[in-house]
Each structure stands twice: as C-alpha cells, then as structure tokens.
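Inverse folding, one chain.
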C-alpha cells in the first residue's frame, strides 16, 4: 500500500483511495486541478468537468485513521511510505512524531 501526502490538507492518504494515479491527466478531467496536484478523498473533486460524479464524496473513507502531517514536509519514498524531508522519519515513527488528528495551520511546520 503506497501512501502520499495530500497537497491541500497534508493528510496521509492511500494512492488507491485518493486522486493520485490520474495526476498527469487532472487538467483534462477536472476544473481547477493542476496536473501536479495529488489530493486525498476529502479534498478531491466530487465531480468531473463534464458534471458526472467522481468516486470522491468529500468525506473520509474510514479505511484507516485520518492522520495529518506538516503540509509539504513529506514525500513518498522508494518503499511507498511517507518520509519527512528534514528528519527522515517514516512509518510509525513519522506518525508518532508529526501526526495529528487535526490539520496543521498553514504557517506551521
């Protein structure tokens, strides 16, 4: 299970459950979603450009706990796990040190 960080809210999300795999075609399918934007199931558009609904409902899927990490501070490493860009923590250590139940403020790291 590969994990990515939502560019909008900072949550850790599964690549199969959020808007990740279509990243190169976002501008074709959605309004106001640049090609480099990867989004969790909450932040992803609920409708395609043509008006048809997507699989995203704007609500968390609850397949695992919703964990917020500092926005823009994590990347998906070669093992498919999130890794912090400064302290290089990953896996459970990353979630214990940086994970929160609420979104980080925009100015906080």
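Residues assigned per position:
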């Amino acid at each position: 299970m590969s994990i990515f960080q939502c560019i909008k809210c900072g949550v850790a999300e599964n690549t199969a459950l959020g808007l990740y795999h279509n990243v190169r075609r976002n501008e074709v399918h959605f309004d106001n979603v640049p090609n480099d934007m990867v989004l969790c199931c909450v932040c992803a558009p609920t409708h395609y450009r043509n008006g048809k609904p997507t699989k995203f409902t704007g609500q968390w899927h609850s397949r695992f706990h919703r964990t917020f990490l500092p926005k823009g501070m994590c990347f998906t490493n070669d093992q498919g796990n999130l890794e912090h860009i400064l302290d290089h923590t990953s896996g459970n250590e990353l979630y214990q040190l940086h994970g929160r139940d609420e979104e980080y403020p925009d100015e906080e790291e």
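Residues 1-109 form one domain. The longest strand covers residues 3-5.
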